[in-house]
Amino acid sequence: MYSFENCGPLFQEMPAFLRKNKYQNVTDRKATIFQPAYNTDLDTYTYFSQHPENLQALIKYMGLEQDVRGRWLEAYPFEKHTQGWNPNPEEALFVDIGGNVGHYCALFRKKFPEIPVRIVLEDLPGTLAHSLPTPGVDKLGHDFFLPQPIKGAKFYHLGWILHNWSDEKAKIILHQIKLAMTPQSVLLINDMILPETQIPAFATALDLVMLGACGSLERTGQQWNDLLADVGLVIQDANVYDHELFHGEDYPMAGQY
Ligand SMILES: C[S@@+](CC[C@H](N)C(=O)[O-])C[C@H]1O[C@@H](n2cnc3c(N)ncnc32)[C@H](O)[C@@H]1O
After folding, report:
1. Which pLDDT score, from 0 to 100, does residue 253 have?
2. Phi, then psi, of 61 in degrees rounded to 5
3. Is 98:127 a contact under the CB 8 Å cutoff?
4. Which residue of 123, 144, 157, 163 could cross-link 127, Cys pair, CB 3.0 to 4.6 Å?
5. Would you state the pLDDT for residue 254?
6. Residue whose CA is at the smallest distance from ligand 1 atom 18
7. Could you tell me which residues come within 8 angstroms of residue 165 by beta carbon, excluding any fewer than 6 positions away?
8. Domain residue ranges in the chain
9. Assigned CATH for 2-256
10. How close is the Cα of 100 to the center of ligand 1, in Å?
11. Beta carbon of 35 within 6 Å of any ligand 1 atom
């Protein structure tokens, strides 16, 4: 359903759009393939907020993605980063920024059922209206271009967020998080790291969807380094958890990164 509702029109429109634009890259999310494909001036997420069928298709697809992308919770060494951290119950352990309806907050709560600290789901109010009723997860309507209201959380999580945004916009999102972080905070970015060449088909297709839907991109290791360095952040560690590599393709991806 996601493919038919939210990707099909992009791929139908793409050849004519690229021809007309002489195959130049696009970074303006309000002047990309989405607008002629959906006959709108709106950007993707504003359009989705006004079109329940597209919003529901996105929510369903993000739910399905848990089967592969939810594995990060098993691969990440949380305990290593929480040793010596003594929060009071008001402090947040995990803030999922742009966390959709809360699939990863629910998995996180399931993994750490006993910990008496806050888990916070943030997204736009229209998406939060459909959020999962997970006990122990606070919900907060928040636009990630504005100052982050939860200060000093242990983990901030951005799952498939930055690939929706051009470098210029991604830097604003990152900057707002950086301002809220303390030296104990960790920013978890859950996104692909593309190899420089021989990019597998699924990753290539998703990169084209990002171009068409958002004027954005999937990034290589170098592109991630450059983006984060521009806001004064440094990659400490990269954990590869998709052991079927790019959703099932047997390919030696950027695991060496
Ligand atoms: C591709 S989905 C990723 C969802 C989830 N993080 C995951 O990994 O499954 C992008 C999410 O960003 C949210 N979003 C878009 N613009 C936003 C904004 N300005 N502020 C907060 N959330 C936003 C959307 O509502 C959507 O839930």
Report:
1. 44
2. -65, -40
3. no
4. 123
5. 44
6. 143
7. 29, 173, 214, 216
8. 2-256
9. 3.40.50.150
10. 5
11. no
CA-164 nearest atom, ligand 1:
1
Q: Burial-class residue 142 by CB neighbours within 10 Å (0-12, 13-18, 19+).
A: buried
d(CA 20, ligand 1 centre) in Å: 30
- 76 alpha carbon to ligand 1 midpoint, in Å? 22
pLDDT at residue 96 is higher than 90: yes
Which of 2, 45, 214 to mutate to test ligand 1, by most ligand atoms within 8 A of the CB atom?
Answer: 45
C-beta of 214 in contact with ligand 1 (< 6 A):
no
Residue 102 CB–ligand 1 contact under 6 Å: no
Residue 24 has pLDDT above 60, yes or no: yes
State residue 23's pLDDT score.
96
Nearest Cα residue to atom 12 of ligand 1 = 98
What tens digit of pLDDT does each residue of 155-209 get? 999 999 999 999 999 999 999 999 999 999 999 999 999 988 888 888 999 999 9
Average pLDDT of the chain, as a whole number:
90
Instruction: Supply the pLDDT for residue 74.
Output: 87
77: tokens are 């060494």
Range 100-111 average pLDDT: 94
Å from CA of 122 to ligand 1 middle: 9
Q: Tell me, what's the pLDDT at 245?
A: 62
